[in-house]
Amino acid sequence: MAYIEWTDSLSVGVKKFDEQHKILISIINELHQSLSEGRTNDVMSKILEKLLDYTIEHFAEEEKYFIKYDYPETTDHKEKHTKLIDEVVHLKNKLDEGDITISYETMSFLQNWLVEHVLQADMKYKNFFHSKKVD
Ligand SMILES: [Fe+2]
Ligand SMILES: [Fe+2]
Question: DSSP class of residue 1?
């Protein structure tokens, strides 16, 4: 069983974003798998970089839709994205500097980092995009 399982309860009602969230989950699962296999910091850092790159891409895509459809919570949601990116940049820098290693505690941080954002922030646009006929 994967570390994080995507279920319908995570669906934000926009297919494209659900697919992107599944990819983010799969990258976090890959990091978890690598941790349990005892991979080196270097391997972990590359996976974190992949997570960072894909997160940036995904957030940009959501923000493009916010602007296009004039989503009223755009500013607040964008601020949350910036904070989330900063957190992973910080984590990766610490790992690269040898200050930390990826632990099960880090994994649980990343799980919450993603799942809480989807459930608390992304879920708020579900009805909005539904009303705009975006699926
Ligand atoms: Fe998202
Ligand atoms: Fe978001």
Answer: -
